[in-house]
Design goal:
Four copies of one chain form a homotetramer.
Chain A (H helix, E strand, L loop, with lengths): L9 H24 L6 H8 L3 H7 L3 H26 L4 H17 L4 H10 L4 H28 L8 H19 L13 H16 L5
The structure holds a DNA duplex (21 and 21 nucleotides).
DNA sequence: TATGAATGAGATTTCATTCAT
DNA sequence: TATGAATGAAATCTCATTCAT
């Protein structure tokens, strides 16, 4: 069952994989229970290790949480930034790609729970809130704004205020994310087709943005 | 020593007012910090009483929270139910009145924080979630659905599924509520005019609901 | 058995006395075990209360320790400062009184253990060391130096450097303190008569300090 | 591959040197931080090995500390015992040599920190205290006492109680050691010239001890 | 009715020690 | 021999809840 080209002994592969396992377990637990209510002992149990092991890899609960965010969300933002930097086509295509990637990789996954968590508990953990705003909100919004600036600069988009326009784009997606992830499991929500929603949102917004072609 | 026009001695009025004061303090604290992070000591301090006094009126933290919800939200739902029961005019007027009351008394006030709190922490406190769904979500939705049924029965509304239609009505209001109450303080949102939003929402929905007048 | 003029109920007197009891227990434990090795649970047990009770009175271990130092050592320094401020006689008498008070109230008592503790563990707890140096070492030395300045100003003492002379006075007393409090119980020390030692020290030093009377 | 003039292969020389390296690192760490506050991980890091390696050479923290004491202090006492056993000259010369060796090799070096450490923490680690008293205090004092007995037996010294006289000799040296090793870094001490001190101490003591030469 | 001192279970974090490789 | 990942007991600190007054 082992890939033959894997030359490392089992425990060494384990060692390398350990941080990922811990981060995965932490993500599950944070999303399931929230930040404050997550007990590190439960994270450890979930990862099949002891409490102390967590501290071999992460200095404390806060750093563990930051690592989860970095590993998942910040990483994805970085990728999107790369994509944007080398992209050569129309800005509308780039913008659509970025928003869809955001939806597919974050909003539509378990990671949406992290966003919820920050909304819910950010107030009680100011350092976490600051980190999240700097690493996620600012960078994410900045990326979108930069695409808008690009489009405006290339004459593809009408000259709008990029910061405000970013909010106009981001807000509905946040809403949809909260909507589709039933925050209160027992509170049934009417079905929304996320892809249709995203498609419509992006379509309408882009057509409003684009300079009319004569 | 007592003001003569007061039928009750001062301390007795105090006694009667006490639970209200405690509930007000608890509401403030719950909204400000969330459920788990609210320390009963802070609630007591805020109300100007001792921790022990809280337990004279409320069996425990959970009951205190339930009382806050009952006193404020459930109470308002009850009033709306009363209003609906005696209302005699067109269903569209009734529906508009109910939604506007919801907005004005709950969504536009501090109480929106309770909704946020339940969305955010409900998972971690199943008994609270169950209570909230039974007393607030079910009754609130039920009220709206009943008005829809009334309108359909009276030939005012087109025959739609009341449960689904209720969701369609409720969802945007929840969205707006979350939107206007900045969940993440640092994350600036584009300005929305809540009254215009509500007006448009209700107007459009009602006109779609109403049977065409020949 | 109760003094009749004591009008407070027993537990109220208890409440007032509680911090003192905790400080006494903490002093015992700190002196017996050192700072790091003192477990707050043991302090609590010694005072006949629970762990949590300690935290009603002292924010944390460090503050508890500081309170012990303040209550005992800093307090005594303050008294000595008062004494010195109102004293009207010869500086040599004042100096002797201050040194003897130091010996009797601190060096010859359990409190000498605090000095030992700071010498031994100060390095590992920089904030504690800073506190101790500011509140105890600086003020204590400052008091002695001020008496020297007074004596020099009044023509009673020869013009020496007060700071250096303070060290010359303080050092042997510290030594004697360490000596008489066997730090390693099994390491027998030759008997020293502390009073004779102090008497000689002060006598010699003063006679060296004093301006020759023609 | 090995340097030919080396009879042992490099890794074997390494193996032999290893315990010494560990002991040196441990000494540094113990002196710097005290016994309790020394973390074996830091010792290992300092020696450039892994934590586990420490346990290949020393059963546990206590044994490591004992080994440090043996390697350094007990070893020096043994040498002095050898010297004394074969020494053939006047007892006063022998005594002076022993005291100066003690000063130069222990008191004036980093090893003085071990003495401080035992004074400070001995109480908390009874087994360590017992070991130290048996291996260091008893043997060291015994050595000095034996020289005194030798001198008395040879008619060089006046007939004093050797045990008491030993304390009289040892005490000031301990004092000086504590004095010169600033125990509280911020607490400045007046400068003392250790060599002058030792010289005077020994000179005065010996002249008091020696039988008057007619 | 009101107080607030007291409790103790439970959370995070540290570190000596073990052991599979 | 050497590693270093893993363990788990123990320490500090928090806070919902109780209860003597």
């Amino acid at each position: 069952m082992q890939a033959p080209q894997d030359t490392k002994p089992r425990w060494e592969r384990r060692k390398d994989a350990r941080p990922q396992e811990l981060l995965a377990a932490a993500l599950d637990q944070f999303v399931e229970r929230g930040y404050a209510a997550t007990r590190l002992e439960d994270v450890a149990k979930r990862a099949g290790v002891s409490k102390g092991t967590l501290y071999l890899y992460f200095a404390n609960k806060e750093e563990l949480f930051k690592a989860v965010v970095r590993e998942n969300i910040v990483h994805a933002i970085g990728e999107a930034e790369q994509d944007a930097a080398v992209f050569d086509g129309p800005s509308s295509v780039l913008l659509r790609a970025i928003l869809m990637k955001w939806w597919d990789q974050i909003c539509a996954t378990q990671l949406a729970g992290i966003t919820k968590l920050m909304l819910a508990e950010g107030n009680n953990f100011p350092e976490l809130a600051q980190f999240y705003n700097e690493e996620v909100v600012a960078r994410g919004n900045g990326l979108i704004a930069s695409v808008l600036v690009r489009g405006i600069g290339r004459g593809e988009f009408r000259p709008v205020d990029p910061a405000v326009m970013t909010q106009v784009l981001v807000a509905p997606v946040l809403m949809l994310m909260m909507w589709t992830h039933s925050f209160m499991p027992t509170c049934e929500m009417p079905p929304i087709d996320p892809h249709a929603f995203m498609d419509t949102l992006i379509g309408v917004t882009l057509s409003g943005l684009e300079v009319a072609q004569p």
